[in-house]
Amino acid sequence: MGGSTRAGTMMMLSYMVLFVLSAAPAAVVGGRAALRGRGMLDNGLALAPQMGWNSWNHFHCNIDEKMIKETADAMVSTGLSSLGYHYINLDDCWGEQNRDSQGNLVAKASTFPSGIKALADYVHNKGLKFGIYSDAGTQTCSKTMPGSLGYEDQDAKTFAAWEVDYLKYDNCNNPDTSPQERYSKMSKALQNSGRNILFSMCEWGQNDPATWAASVGNSWRTTGDIDDNWGSMTSIADQNNQWASYAKPGGWNDPDMLEVGNGGMTTEEYRSHFSIWALAKAPLLIGCDVRSMNYQTLEILSNSEVIAVNQDKLGVQGQKVKSDGDLEVWAGPLSGGRVVVVLWNRGSGKASITANWSDIGLKSSDVVKARDLWAHKTISSVQGKLTATIGSHSCKMYVLSPK
Ligand code: GAL
């Protein structure tokens, strides 16, 4: 393509971008960053938010190779893996307290007697990917095993030799040096390890990672740890929301892992949790015991229409666009000119919630088809606004498509 033609095409593209930006209100165009393209780390991973399972929220330190293998089996037999939940991630407490005489990390003999490579092989043989955990400090948060500070290259090589696909990197027991420095060191070590490893940064949002981590990791925690209750989940959703404009393919805000199925919230509260995480393009990491989950849990986690919102190729994080006390509208653009809308009642009684087209980036004359992603029903024609009665701590989630 000649220089002038390329310049012409670039100009046309900028006009198109400008048109998209001016056609939607500021809240919905949190996608400004996404329009700039992929995250700078550019290892080709997490082009959509990563999906999988992690041991921490349910099991904490009570993990062993038998239950991890059973979990991998269950991810396949329940159909979750075929919906995109590919990563099986070990969290804290998988290692011995001390390194070996060569300074290598060692799997805990009492709980992982076959070693990590054998476990990764088992997971890979099921068509899944395998993730592990370490820490940018001298010890992990449990203090039961070493962290990787000062051993970044050696540990990255160990993980690559074990055929690890994903590293969650925590922030405990650090010497108070900048996380930029400590996380960049491991990011580079992974890039030099000879294996393409997704880098999930767990710095708890302390140093506003959204503003600097796109060149370092594929996702970054924006908050402290989630607890399995309504107050924690809603507060984390709000804290994460302020960083929406920084999310883009290759680098995502991480409001922590899912609690769906752990028992501390009602089914409707878990449905809200999953809907908002999906809309916010959060990594979807299941945190319950999938070997024994009930029907409601599986139904929530396997809603393929909600998952499709999370994995949409536009990669723009949806945001809270309106709130009236406890009654909220969250929305964001999707590919194909579609819009996702969540009407969320955070109050204690039933209430009517309305999304006006002006709230969600549509023109008042626009006529759309509205797909209800939880009822699995379509309203064939809606214009100007969408109103629904929503129960306490419940939500409705729609995808609006231009007619
Ligand atoms: C926390 C982290 C949790 C979990 C835990 C393990 O710092 O946020 O997600 O990894 O450490 O000790």
From TrEMBL:
Residues 1-22 form the signal peptide. Residues 324-400 form the Alpha galactosidase C-terminal domain. It catalyses: Hydrolysis of terminal, non-reducing alpha-D-galactose residues in alpha-D-galactosides, including galactose oligosaccharides, galactomannans and galactolipids. One of its GO terms (cellular component) is plant-type cell wall. GO terms for biological process: carbohydrate metabolic process. Pfam families: Melibiase_2, Melibiase_C. Its EC number is 3.2.1.22. The keyword Secreted does not apply. InterPro entries: Aldolase_TIM, GH, Glyco_hydro_27, Glyco_hydro_27/36_CS, Glyco_hydro_b, Melibiase_C. Keywords: Disulfide bond, Glycosidase, Hydrolase, Signal. GO terms for molecular function: alpha-galactosidase activity. It is an enzyme of class 3 (hydrolase). It comes from the Eukaryota. The keyword Disulfide bond applies. Belongs to the glycosyl hydrolase 27 family. This is Alpha-galactosidase. It comes from Iris pallida (Sweet iris). The lineage of its organism: Eukaryota, Viridiplantae, Streptophyta, Embryophyta, Tracheophyta.
